[in-house]
Amino acid sequence: LSYLLELPHDHYAHLSLQESSRLREDGERSWLSDLDSWAIQHLPNSSLSLPSLQALTTQSISKLIGDITDCTMTSLQQSIDVSSRLTFLQGRREPHKDGTTSRVASTLRHYLTQVRRPEHRVSLTKLLCGDLTPVTFRASPASTRPLPDQQQRPKFCRACQDPLQPETPQHVLLQCQAIPTILPIQTAFLTSMAQHLPLPHSRTFTDASATFYIKSFVFHWTLVVPSAQYVHDCISLWKEFIGLETDLESEEEEQD
């Protein structure tokens, strides 16, 4: 739009822009009317609109682009903050190489560049994005539709069998002490993390603190690499423990 606006007024492309503006003013369909009514005004929680062609300048277009970006990012963050699937992304602060952090709703995330092994990156991304289905972790809120009564599963942990302990990823990663194959790597992982971040001396975690520490490990510029490996290894060992077949998990993911 800025490019078209700066063309000579007798340029064919600029003449087309003027015609589009005339059609918009007459209430007819045109590129400018679609840009305004279908793109800009349909932004969630937005009162933005496209000014008339006569009122448009390159400066006002740049400001509008900035306002649209701010509106979109705010809406995205609000959707994340109320989603039951995105617990690990709520309140997230993006780490930077210099040790600082910032809150940004959408960017090239550090784990996408820092974690080089694809399988580790995929496992971590699934954890963060709430994509570990209830067939893997019974208490995962991943299903987008209610299950029929005959498909409802008890939500307590299949390892420790505690009726008060929901089977969540954070429980298996940091809380559960009843999985023989995971316990040694859990101990080694926490011992390693304690060299960088203060941890509870008892190494016992509530649901809330388990979530907090997983986020602390993952949203750290350097600790994200061993954390991604630990997440991947734990999920793999957990699937072996519950006898989960890959085909079954893939089938449920497709249904979600």
Describe the structure.
Helix content is 50%, strand content 2%. It is mostly helical. It folds into two domains: 80 residues, no CATH class; 169 residues, no CATH class. The protein has a two-stranded antiparallel sheet. The C terminus is likely disordered.
Walk me through the topology:
Blueprint: H1 2-6, H2 12-25, H3 31-40, H4 58-81, E1 94-95, E2 101-102, H5 110-114, H6 118-128, H7 169-175, H8 183-193, H9 207-218, H10 224-242, H11 246-255
Antiparallel strand pairs: 1-2
Helix pairs in contact: 6-10, 7-9
Q: Report how far the terminal alpha carbons are from each other.
A: 40 Å
As a whole number of angstroms, the C-alpha radius of gyration is: 25 Å
**Helix share, percent:** 40-55%
Number of domains: 2
Widest β-sheet, arrangement of strands: 1-2
Key terms for this structure?
single chain; 256 residues; mainly alpha; two-stranded antiparallel sheet; 11 helices
Could you provide a short overview of the structure?
The chain is mainly α. It is built from eleven helices and two strands, in the order H-H-H-H-E-E-H-H-H-H-H-H-H.
